[in-house]
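> call design_seq(struct)
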């Protein structure tokens, strides 16, 4: 990453010289008085993964991304209630205008630690915006001299980010490291190169050889980017996702709060320099309303619960193994999920 780091440093310094440099202001929380709405007959029960139909029949919801069932956990509900009383319901503007509350800062620090001790973190309103925001901002450094290679089964938000980037790109066959290496060799003369994959693939549910992919990226001085949306809270002994499972550290790790971490929004983890660059040049961050403090509070509590109760991750993994074995016994093809 040495070459791209120099380019990023130059861009940031240019912003400072021209008075266009951005920083997120810090603010103190203010109390907001409000009247809660009455609880009307909502069709969703408070039980995790259950839904009441008009026929009063209950179903177990296997289509959810609420992998650990924390979205209905009373501890998280209480954290949200406390956040509403302390911060209100919304940031109501961009972080660069509104600023960070201490609950946002707390979430960033917890994510850095939980996901492998990264230097810094930036919060986005959604995983889709995070992927587009990161890919587009990095490509904007030198779009005609940027090459992106990505796994062919990457999420739509990754592909959309690439399509909007203006960079040259190629996909590599799913989890085929030789194919990846050959593509990078042919495009080795590009100034900026990115290798993008997922920690757990959202459609097939399989896991890449991440260590091998990162080794290849390093060989060609490419920036490694991993979307860890479906890996967070599901793999690794502590639920830390790809870094926990593979004992490796991508240059940039992107994840969502809307799955195992029980709220909404997304995060990007990287070196301090990269995050500083995104704050200043990622349009998906600059021109979006900041994550609500309630979402931040919910995910702070979710991380605490996972760290204090690692057995819930083990239970999920055991249940997943049981389901896979049972489906195979039924003659179903579950691929490499």
């Amino acid at each position: 990453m040495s070459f791209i780091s120099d380019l990023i440093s130059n861009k940031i310094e240019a912003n400072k010289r021209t008075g266009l440099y951005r920083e997120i202001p810090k603010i103190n929380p203010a109390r907001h008085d409000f009247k809660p709405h009455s609880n009307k007959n909502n069709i969703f029960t408070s039980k995790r993964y259950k839904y009441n139909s008009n026929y009063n029949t209950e179903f177990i919801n296997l289509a959810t991304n609420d992998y650990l069932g924390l979205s209905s956990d009373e501890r998280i509900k209480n954290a949200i209630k406390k956040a509403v009383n302390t911060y209100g319901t919304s940031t109501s503007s961009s972080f660069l205008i509104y600023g960070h509350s201490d609950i946002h800062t707390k979430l960033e620090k917890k994510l850095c630690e939980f996901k492998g001790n990264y230097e810094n973190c930036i919060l986005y309103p959604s995983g889709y915006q995070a992927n587009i925001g990161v890919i587009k901002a990095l490509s904007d450094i030198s779009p005609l001299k940027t090459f992106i290679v990505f796994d062919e089964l990457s999420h739509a938000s990754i592909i959309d980010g690439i399509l909007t980037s203006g960079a040259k790109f190629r996909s590599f066959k799913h989890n085929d490291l030789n194919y990846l290496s050959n593509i990078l060799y042919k495009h080795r003369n590009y100034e900026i190169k990115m290798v993008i994959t997922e920690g757990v693939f959202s459609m097939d549910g399989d896991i890449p050889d991440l260590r091998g992919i990162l080794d290849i990226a390093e060989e060609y001085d490419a920036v490694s980017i991993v979307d860890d949306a479906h890996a967070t809270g599901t793999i690794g002994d502590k639920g830390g996702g790809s870094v926990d499972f593979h004992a490796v550290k991508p240059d940039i790790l992107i994840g969502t709060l809307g799955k195992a971490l029980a709220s909404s929004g997304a995060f990007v983890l990287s070196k301090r320099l990269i995050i500083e660059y995104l704050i200043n040049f990622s349009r998906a961050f600059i021109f979006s309303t900041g994550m609500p403090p309630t979402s931040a509070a919910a995910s702070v509590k979710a991380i605490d619960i996972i760290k204090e109760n690692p057995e819930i991750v083990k239970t999920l993994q055991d249940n997943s193994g049981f389901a896979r074995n049972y489906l195979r016994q039924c003659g179903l093809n579950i691929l490499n999920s």
